[in-house]
From TrEMBL:
The keyword rRNA-binding does not apply. The lineage of its organism: Bacteria, Bacillati, Bacillota, Bacilli, Bacillales. Belongs to the short-chain dehydrogenases/reductases (SDR) family. GO terms for molecular function: glucose 1-dehydrogenase [NAD(P)+] activity. This is Glucose 1-dehydrogenase. It holds the Pfam family adh_short_C2. Keywords: NADP, Oxidoreductase. PANTHER family: 7-ALPHA-HYDROXYSTEROID DEHYDROGENASE, 7ALPHA-HYDROXYSTEROID DEHYDROGENASE. One of its GO terms (biological process) is carbohydrate metabolic process. Its EC number is 1.1.1.47.
Length: 256
């Protein structure tokens, strides 16, 4: 069974690979044999993740890019190609959140969040997918969505909207790239201790989340690794595309 999840010889590009969840997933890919490019806006934190992977016997290198500035994505794609010769797996894990109420929302904040969560990921994917098509060896694109993508969450209007749009993008691109044997799927995490949602987790909100989560706890970042490795592996999920894998402790199965 272990051969199903062997990523030896694969190269993964982890956009947002320096974030809490992105870093954990990147480590999981590396543990299963993938050579991983850790791409983040903050090069120092990206270096920390790459160093941890290398220390544990994996292969990783840190790169700097900001998906809201596509010129940096073009540049980093060239740098990664020079380092690895190409890539087989693209992880889209950047994210930005805000608790601004709808009636107080300004266009500047809307644009800033959408530039990262939607526009940036769409056009970064375009850049990296072109190379995947040219390589003609298939591949896997994994988007990180959210439970707010299917049922909007209070207090995170723009974030929820961007993630709902990302689900549509995932299914559209799954159809677009199927002839190239490039699979496009998304993971829908529940509530994990990521930096972007800690600031809105008041005691009242934590209680509300727990009342809506059958497993009655937050997720651990490592619990996303299995879903990502599965989606990255051609042998394990070679006929899986355009789908969403929930890792949410049952959050999506609850109403009242």
């Amino acid at each position: 069974m272990s051969k199903l999840f062997d990523l030896t010889g694969k190269v993964a590009v982890a956009l947002g690979g320096n974030s809490t969840l992105g870093a954990s997933i990147a480590k999981g890919l590396a543990e299963h044999g993938a050579k991983v490019a850790i791409v983040g806006r903050n090069l120092d934190t990206a270096n920390e993740v790459a160093q941890e992977i290398n220390k544990d016997g994996g292969q990783a290198k840190a790169f700097q890019a900001d998906v809201s500035d596509l010129s940096t994505v073009e540049k980093v794609a060239s740098e990664i190609e020079a380092w690895s010769g190409g890539w087989d797996i693209l992880l889209n894990a950047p994210g930005m959140n805000s608790t601004t109420p709808f009636l107080d929302l300004a266009t500047e904040e809307w644009d800033k969040i959408m530039d990262v969560n939607l526009k940036g990921i769409v056009f970064a994917t375009q850049i990296f997918a072109k190379k995947m098509v040219e390589q003609d060896r298939g591949g896997s694109i994994i988007n990180i969505s959210s439970v707010s993508s299917t049922t909007p969450l209070s207090k995170v209007f723009t974030y929820s909207t961007s993630k709902a749009a990302m689900n549509s993008v995932t299914q559209y691109l799954a159809r677009e790239f199927a002839p190239n044997n490039i699979r496009v799927n998304a993971i829908i995490p529940g509530f994990f201790p990521a930096e972007q949602n800690r600031k809105i987790l008041s005691e009242e909100r934590v209680n509300s989340i727990m009342n809506h989560t059958p497993m009655n706890r937050f997720g651990e970042p490592e619990e996303l690794q299995g879903a990502a490795v599965y989606l990255a592996s051609d042998k394990a999920s070679g006929f899986v595309t355009g789908t969403f894998i929930r890792v949410d402790g049952g959050f999506g199965s609850m109403t009242i």
